[in-house]
Each structure stands twice: as C-alpha cells, then as structure tokens.
Write a structure and sequence with these properties.
The chain is mainly α. The chain has helices at residues 36-47, 65-72, 96-119, 150-158, 162-174, 181-193, 212-221, 227-232, 240-247, 253-265, 269-281, 288-296, 298-301, 305-321, 328-338, 344-358, 365-375, 386-396, 411-421, 425-436, 447-464, 467-477, 486-498, 505-514, 521-533, 538-556, 567-578, 584-596, 603-616, 619-631, 637-647, 652-668. The radius of gyration is 35 Å and the shape is elongated.
Length: 669
C-alpha cells in the first residue's frame, strides 16, 4: 500500500512544471490510506484488548435496505419500455420522436403541477400523506414578513427573491439597523448567483434559455451559448453586489468569494482577477472556491497558451503559500483550462493527473474526460494516442464512480466516440464493461446523451462485429435503452449485407415501421436496393415481394407521413414483385405507375420484364412492353424488339407492330 502524501499543497519548480514524486501515472488504483485518527483508534484498541467486547443491543438498518435488496434481485427486461413510461401502457413510446415528446410532456406536467402548488398553497393546506414527505409539500413562495427586520431579509433570501432581498437590506440600513455578517454573506451569494436578477420560477416557460432547463438544452446542443443569451447574463459593473460589498466595513474571504465566483460565472473574468488583486492587497486569505473560479477563467484573460499555463501555475503556487488545500474541483478546473492551452495540454494533463494521485485525490469521470480531450482533438489523427485510453480504462477498472462534477456525464460518450472513430472494438467493449459495473450507468447523462452513447456503441458493433453478435445486441438495446436513428439502421443493413444475411431484411423492415422511420426515403431506398440487387431462393423472393407490397402502401398512403415515389423506389419495388411468381400482376401495375408518376424505368428493368414474358410465353405482354419502352424513348428498345422477335412465337400482326416500332426507333435515332 502506497504511503500517504504528507504535502498539503502543490510543489512546483521555477519553470512551472510539476515535481513528480515517482508516482506511476496510471498504475495507481483506488487505495485506502490510514489517517492519523485511524492509527490512534487502532493503538487504543490494542491497549484495551483485555477488556470485554460490548455487543450492541440493536442493529440500525438503513431505511432503504429492503428496497435495495429487492432491487438487486431483478434485472432489466430488454424487451420492456424505459421505466419512466411503464405506469401507463397506452403512453409507451414506440419511436424516438414519441420518446422525446412523452419525456417533455412528463417534465412539463411536473413543472406545471409544481408551479400551481407553489403559487396556490391555500388549496393544499391539508396533508393526508403517510408517511409525511416534506419535499413533496407546497413551498411558501410569498413573503409573510413586511417589517424592516433581519428576519424579513432572511425570508426573502430563502425564497430567492433577489430584488426584494436587496430592498429589504436597504430598508434595514436606512432605519439604522445592522445586518449580521452571516446574513450579508447569504445575500451576496444570492445576488452573485443570479447576476442581480430574479431567477425564473420553476414551471414558468423559459423562452430565452436563461433558466435551468435552458442551460441543459444548451449543454445538449453545445457547450457554448449564443451572443444574445450571453448578454442577458453578463455581469454589470457597480451592480447591487458590488454596492453592498463596498458598504461592508470589514470584508472577509466569504465576501470576496461570492463576488469573484459570480463574476467568473457571468463573464466578467478580468474584473474577477482585479478583485482578487484587491483581496491580496488587503491581506485577506482566499479559499478553495476563489482559486477554482480563477483557474477556470485563466483562458479568458490570457491569449497565448504559455501565458495561460503560467497563470494557472501562479494561482496554484499562491494556493500553496496560503495553505489552501486543493480539491477535486481544483484539479478539474486545471484540466478543463488545459483543454484551451493547445499543444501544452498533453504534457501538463498527465502531470496534473499524477499530482492528483500523489495528493490522494481520486480523479472523477470529468477528470478523465478532460484528459481525453487533451489527446483526442477533432480533426487530428488519434490512432497513436489510443494507449492513453487503454491505460485510463485499466486504472478505472473495478471502480464504482459517483457523480462529483457536472462534467462527469460526458466521459462515456467521449470514450465511445474515440472507439468508433478508430474502429477499436476491444476498446469499446472495455468502455461498456465500465458502464455496466456497479452504478456507473447512472453517469451516462440524460436520455439524449444515453441515446448518443448507445448509438455509437451500436454503430461500432455493426461495423466491426459478426452479424449474430450484432443481432444479440440489437435485441438487448432496443427499445429498452436505445431508439435507433436512420443512420443506425443503415449500419445494421450494411452489417447484414456484409455477412450475407439479407433474408432478415423483412424483419428489419417491420422494425423500421414500428420505430417510425418508414418515412425516411433514403433508408427505404437502401433497404429496397439490397433486396433487389441479387436473386434469391423462391421462398426468400416471396418474402421480399410481401415486404415490397408493404413498402408500396407507405408510398400510396393518404397520411401526412406518406413518401413521394422516386425512380429508384419504383424500380426496386417492381423488380421484387416481378421476381415472385405470385406477384407478377402487381409488377405490371407498377409499370403503369411509372407513367402516372412521370418516372422513367431503367433498361435493366425492361430487360427483366421481357425475360419474364419469354419464360411464361406471354407474347401479348412482350409487345405491350416494347410499346411502353418506345413511349419512354428508351435506348434499349431495339434490343427488346430483337429479343422478342427471336425468342417468342409471335403472330404476323404482332411482328408487324414490332417492326413498325423498330423502324420508328431507327428513324428517331
């Protein structure tokens, strides 16, 4: 077992590089170190070994121990819908669009109910719930105290009424009363958190994306906000937070911490560093939250990569001088800032990870995600860096992670993207094994991110794994965990084509219809193209013909989701019907559909029609076919005429018709 690190801070050389303490970067697993308290307890136990052992009279169990035990006895049903929709079988989503619609409907209903309860508590004064659950009871959203007192100020702070709290604070000062430092700290925290604006009430439509739901939506669409949204939350100089800060006679660390964190959060990084300098001049010691915020803002106040890293090192050294012990969020802020330090990120990311382990701070998933971002940048070759991901996964093996950082939910998606880009199936299996270990699956993120992760896993399997294994995963993931998008289904079709399992295409078509992707023309055309490319056994051709008739109903339907016939789709459906002996009549009907839809059949399709006429001896159909080809002015009309006159027993009248068509074709040429 490794010895615990005795250093409370970070050690650096003059050039800003870490002093590595002979720690292997990746071989360090989760280990437990004996603290001095545990050593003392062990010594006391040895000295009192002669005393009798006291057995407790009652064992205290967790309130959820029974539920946890029952939950451990069941497994996920791969054929079941997601758990949040199992209460109402009539509202179980079948497609990805329905899943999004029902999920948003549930969240909207909860938000509307909570908004009504919180704004009309008079209708919910009686509590019949047993047991009593305080968090489900209506919150008091209206201030009850109107006098100028500190209690009224605390009430408005608890209700998150920014403007009302500021007014109450001003009233107290105007009346000559004093406000305790603790209440002032809470007021500053409230103002800085919401940037001197009243927060959007939960359940209220958030049109500008400024609320919590808007922030989640922005994280799903991207990690950067629009300029209009940024201006709405920008820190204004000399706002109420700074005004109240200047009114405080003795400003302590908590006051500076509130303002600096608020400035960094709302885009005033340069002003945050100015306040930090003022704090140092006033000989006020910073706390870990101040340094975390400043480190995360280092890339905003420096342009060159070296200057950014030098600023980060300077802040870490100042932490060491002020005896502020770094936390996990400190190192995550360093790693996140390194993502914007260009070529310096690779070297210093590994040094930072080594320093974390030297200080006994286990990295979180966000730490590893930032390291991956340093080595696997978009648009660059990543094959040479796969060893990094292998070593990271080896270090993470057997660890049941818990959510400690908001960015923890991005690691698995990033790791699976790297596996997919490099077509590394073994590495993909390792990533998924880590997901399935313990409760790590909870850190996949929201349903949108889960869909991205499982989509990348499924695409990797389709491109690299045997089709039987792919089909096993297909049955495990759909629909309980993943609703495949059109690209995922295309990858599945390519996997079936690669292993020559095209006989399963009718089954996949039924899944395409049930998943709501039968209105995607490119997907339907690819399915039909695979079925019509080669000839198969009569049994398979009969199944393909039945599938083609089902596809025809999608094009001919009168619903809004109906597709418009394309030349490729008409050709494929007609070919499939023509190859089935029981569907030739429908194939001739499809030939007439070419005229009504102003589509031109291919020469190969006309040749296949003529071969069917020759095989069945249908001379009338052959003459009709040549006439149809001449009406479309196809270049292969002469070849059709020659084959028909050579291989069919025609009457004199039929030969005359064909000769006339042949002469007209020569004249037109």
């Amino acid at each position: 077992m490794a010895a615990p690190c005795k250093h409370a801070g970070l050690c650096f050389q003059k050039n800003g590089r870490f002093l590595l303490r002979n720690f292997d970067i990746f071989s360090c697993r989760r280990s437990f170190h004996w603290s001095p308290v545990l050593h003392q307890q062990a010594a006391e136990a040895n000295t009192d070994s002669s005393e009798s052992i006291v057995i407790p009279k009652k064992k205290t169990w967790s309130k959820t121990a029974v539920l946890e035990t029952l939950a451990a006895t069941i497994k996920r049903d791969p054929a079941a819908y997601p758990y949040q929709f199992q209460d109402d079988s009539y509202l179980s989503p079948r497609t990805s669009s329905e899943f999004s619609l029902y999920s948003l409907s549930q969240e909207s209903g909860r938000a509307a109910a909570k908004y009504f309860i919180n704004n009309n508590p008079k209708f919910f004064t009686k509590d019949f719930a047993e047991p009593h659950i305080p968090c489900l009871m209506p919150d008091s959203v209206s201030p009850l105290l109107d006098e100028a007192s500190e209690a009224a100020l605390k009430e408005r702070i608890a209700l998150r009424r920014v403007s009302a709290a500021v007014d109450a604070y001003d009233r107290l000062l105007q009346s000559g009363q004093t406000v305790s430092m603790e209440t002032t700290h809470d007021l500053l925290d409230l103002i800085c958190l919401y940037c001197d604006r009243d927060p959007v009430a939960e359940g209220t439509p958030d049109t500008d994306g400024a609320g919590e739901g808007g922030e989640d939506a922005r994280r799903r669409k991207g990690r950067f906000r629009k300029a209009s949204q940024l201006l709405k939350s920008t820190w204004r100089e000399d706002n109420n937070a700074e005004r109240i800060f200047n009114l405080i006679p003795e400003r302590d660390t908590r006051c500076y911490s509130a303002l600096i964190r608020g400035m960094v959060k709302h885009g005033a990084s340069t002003r945050a560093f100015s306040f930090y300098t003022d704090m140092l001049n006033n000989r006020v010691t910073g706390d870990v939250h101040i340094f975390n915020a400043l480190i995360s803002a280092a890339s905003e106040v420096r342009e060159k990569y070296n200057d950014r890293w030098d600023l980060i090192v300077e802040l870490l050294n100042q932490m060491n001088q002020q005896k502020v012990r770094p936390t996990l969020h400190t190192f995550n802020a360093v790693l996140k800032s390194l993502r914007r330090c260009g070529y310096l990120a690779k070297t210093h990311a590994l040094h930072t990870l080594s320093e974390m382990k030297a200080l006994g701070i286990p990295p979180s998933l966000a730490s590893y995600d930032h390291v991956l971002a340093a080595f696997f940048r978009s648009g660059t070759s990543t094959a040479n860096n796969l060893d990094i991901l292998h070593e990271l996964l080896s270090a993470m093996e057997g660890i049941d992670f818990s959510g400690q950082d908001p960015d923890d939910v991005y690691f698995f998606c990033s790791a699976m993207r790297i596996c997919l880009d490099n077509k590394d199936l073994e590495l993909g299996y390792k990533v998924h094994a880590l997901v399935e270990f313990g409760e790590n699956w909870r850190l996949l993120g929201d349903p949108y991110q889960q869909s991205i992760y499982y989509g990348r896993l499924f695409n990797l399997l389709c491109s690299m794994e045997h089709v039987d294994v792919v089909l096993d995963w297909y049955r495990k993931l759909i629909p309980s965990l993943y609703y495949p998008n059109p690209q995922g289904l295309k990858d599945l079709l390519q996997a079936l084509d690669t292993d020559n399992r095209l006989d399963l295409l009718p089954t996949i078509w039924r899944d395409i219809r049930s998943l709501g992707h039968d209105n995607k023309l490119d997907l339907v055309e690819e399915l039909l193209g695979l079925m019509s490319r080669d000839r198969h056994s009569p049994e398979v051709q009969q199944q393909f013909a039945g599938c083609a008739l089902e596809v025809k109903t999608v094009f001919d339907g009168d619903r809004v989701r109906s597709l418009e016939w394309s030349s490729a789709a008409l050709t494929h459906v007609t070919t499939l019907l023509l190859r089935d002996d029981n569907s030739t009549a429908q194939a001739w009907e499809m030939l007439q559909l070419f005229k009504s839809k102003n589509r031109i059949p291919t020469v190969a399709l006309m040749e296949e029609f003529l071969s069917a006429c020759i095989a069945s001896g249908a001379a009338d159909k052959a003459v009709e076919l040549v006439q149809t080809s001449a009406s479309f002015c196809l270049p292969g009309t002469n070849n059709l005429t020659e084959r028909a006159m050579k291989d069919l027993q025609l009457s004199e009248e039929q030969r005359a018709v064909l000769s006339e068509l042949e002469a007209a074709a020569v004249t037109s040429d």
